[in-house]
From TrEMBL:
Gene3D superfamilies: 1.20.5.1930, Histidine kinase-like ATPase, C-terminal domain. Residues 301-330 are annotated as: Disordered. PANTHER family: NITRATE/NITRITE SENSOR PROTEIN NARX-RELATED, NITRATE_NITRITE SENSOR PROTEIN NARQ. It comes from Isoptericola luteus. InterPro entries: HATPase_C_sf, HATPase_dom, Sensor_HK_TwoCompSys, Sig_transdc_His_kin_sub3_dim/P. Pfam families: HATPase_c (PF02518), HisKA_3 (PF07730). Residues 364-470 form the Histidine kinase/HSP90-like ATPase domain. Keywords: ATP-binding, Kinase, Membrane, Nucleotide-binding, Phosphoprotein, Transferase, Transmembrane, Transmembrane helix, Two-component regulatory system. The keyword Kinase applies. The keyword Transmembrane applies. Its EC number is 2.7.13.3. The lineage of its organism: Bacteria, Bacillati, Actinomycetota, Actinomycetes, Micrococcales. Residues 309-321 have a biased composition (Gly residues). The chain crosses the membrane at residues 37-57, 63-82, 89-106, 112-130, 137-157, 177-203. This is histidine kinase.
Amino acid sequence: MSHDRPGPTSRALEWFGVDADWERVPADPRRTYRDDLWLGAAFVVLTLVGTELGRSIGYFEDVATPAWALYLLSVLGAAPLALRRRFPLVVLAVEYLHFLLVGIAVPMLTMLAPLQVAYFVALFTAVAWARDRRAMLLVVGAVLLVMFGWIVWQFAVGAGVEGIVEQMGLGDSRPGLFSPVIAMVAYTWLMNLAYFCGAIAAGQLRWHAARTRERLTEQAATIERQAAALQQQAVVRERLRIARELHDVVAHHVSVIGIQAAAARRLLAADPAAAAAPLATIEGQSREAVTQMRGLLGTLRGVDEDGGGRAGGARAGGARAGGARAPEPGLADVPALAEAADGLEVEVRIVEEPAGAAADVPASVGLSLYRTAQEALSNVRKHSTARRASVVVRVDRRPAQTGRPGAERFRHGYAEVEVLDDGRPRPGGAGTGMGLLGVRERVGTHGGVAEVGPRVTGGYRVRVRLPLPEDPS
């Protein structure tokens, strides 16, 4: 069986980014090009200082070129770096043309450290910033061909290796393993290979790093947009679910009103005093129905303002309208949540003040607290190492003390549910957070408060407190 594996040439072209669908451009061009101007100016100053220091130590003693020409040639070798990222390939060609021409006329000048660094920076920048990668390879290849050809020409036509060895005073001696001639040639080639290949490798690695960084930035932005969209969808789904449940609760109140109205109509003629009880029930049920309808409209208004809620509501409502609906659960159904045979030990307690207050909790409030306990226990079972959990339902019909924070909100009492566990997050079991987002939506619908988060003593805590409406009696 044959496998189509790319050859060395294909891998090299891919590594250099040839035919890549990405071009490196400065994130802030004005700042980038301004920084290059300052860099070019700094190199000009360093090169002038280096040239003068070389003259002062006799470095150019055997050179007939006047001082002003040395200064001018130094400036011409450093100044192009001011445009290095605006025109990287042009600067590379100019720099190495300067290297070649000045190296023939005044070779000692090109050996100055500031100019050597300038040539290195030009090659590095061309590889790191060239937008056309094919043109980059052609220009860099031409530079390498000319530079190494120049080295060969120097050895063959210039002073020669033997002359250099004689100037070093080695003569026919052999202080090391290799002969001085072989060692000089090998050392020269090694230094130049390290110089040019180092600049090319550093520039290409910088190019890859920039591309990877930009892709990661784009991926992070995409993930953030997708997460926001998923969160919005979860909010819409949860609000529509709340709206359907509130619809059932309000429908129950309206049905009670209809039955009591019929009873009151029959009693009005025969016993007007007896009709007071059905009318009082109608009054209480109508007030509660209006309260629940206001919450329903507020929820739907929030969905429409966030976008996409109306169409989704039509689909969701239509899907459920034709099916049979079971009675919505309430506080009385919370103990049933502990009956799941999954190894989690759940303790349920109901605290009432006064006695029997839990039975008078409005159906919508009881439903929201039931859903909160259900979601919290589901999270414990899925995402926690806990083996025990507790659920406490508290209903307090005593008036809140004035002057305390939140007293106005809970002036007619409150109903709350608190779920505690003693576990730690299960490795790799982190959830999406959408369930607790639904809990907060329910809390916002009823104007309550929620506390969700880890406990100081270990484990996790979910506590939701909802205000109770005024007792119609």
